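Per reviewer request, we include the raw input and output of the structure prediction for the construct analysed in the revised manuscript.
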Amino acid sequence: MYRFALAFGLMMSALMGAAHADESAVAAAIEDYMGFTEYGSGAILPEQIPEEAWKNIVVIDARAADQFAREHIPGAVNIEWRHAPQRRHEIPRDRMVVMYCNIGVLSTQSVFALRLMGWDNVLVLGGGIEGWKAKGGLKANALAAAKR
């Protein structure tokens, strides 16, 4: 949760600094979003996704292309975190979309921006690819269930 709070703070600082000239519009959009969203609504953990569900999810790797080339979650597409807002029309609105980076900080910024723009189906993968690997990758859900 600390990572999400840190990323959220960084995103807020960037938004407010970049849009200082139109502070009221930015503030209104953020206030509307924060008033609407529920706790945890923008995130999902690897253990919450059954292995068979991954094939129905649009998975976006928000890391740089060289990191994506080295390793990525099977089926993922690469949209670098800072390009997600300008490439938002490549991101479907009618399916679950899960975005990740290394540990979740940069992808959280992208998810926040996309959700402000109306893509409420986009979630950040808590812990990023490192957390996903540590929890068992595609088998994280089954491994977590076996521990219960």
